[in-house]
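1st attempt posting a full record on here, be nice pls
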Amino acid sequence: MPLIIVRNDITKMSVDAIVNAAKESLLGGDGVDGCIHRAAGPELLRECRTLGGCRTGEAKLTGAYRLPCRYVIHTVGPVWNGGKYGEREQLASCYRSSLALAKEHGCETVAFPLISSGVFGYPKDQALRVAVDTISEFLAENDMTVYIVIFDRAAYQIGNKLFADIAAYIDDHYMDTHTNLRRERARRKDVAESRMLTACEDAPMAASGLDEALAHLDAGFSETLLKLIDRSGKKDAEVYKKANVDRKLFSKIRNNPDYKPSKPTAVAFAIALELNLDETRDLIARAGYALGPSSKFDVIIEYFITRRDYDIFRINEALFAFDQSLLGA
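the predicted structure (as tokens):
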């Protein structure tokens, strides 16, 4: 764990293995295939010549040579023919076969391109859905960090109905932080002046009031999270995997009552526990965070929670599409 979508050049990924979207000959080609061969050097092609090609949906492993990884896993994706000729199962097989090879060779980190979404013509939104579904199924049973690498923003278009709905929701609920800036500054000034007057009036009682308040602190994030997990009846591993969080980070949270996770991690646990909006706000407030209309991240999270859609990988697809931090990882 976990699954992370990143925008990067796959040939620059410092992982145990990168996956090459290859042709059946394994002798190089256009797109990602050509980039990987050029970055690895001629030694990669020399080894590929000994493999006898590769069938669609299968995978083969070579050394990485001049690349900053240990292995290259070559897999052949399907050519898109309208989706009625087994393309989805063939594409899922690419991911399963590659992950099995990575596990067999002791890889802890693997980076995939969006297989078949280039010259092979597989629609990008559907290709991403297959990748996320297949990888997340593997990660439910295995400990590994897997990256889906998108080369540039132009390669990832916000075109399907989900993202169009979210865009409309953002338009309706997102308050631009630059709107009415003068009014907001004036409001803050009034609030600050009011607080100063109140503080002056209450100064003699401040010391005793503070001591009493500190003696009755609410439970922190860690304690509250563990109680919610117990209430859910789920195992710890089930929750942190569903939250797209690795075991080491969860151990830090469990063993340190004062641990303050990042906001995406705090929200990820709320999603994993399928909390409603009020419960989510309460949980993340214990780590010092809030949800509000001036953040696209927050509005997108509210969109999914109010629809009771707790698929964290689907949420991360949307966050990635709108250039926001991803949950968990």
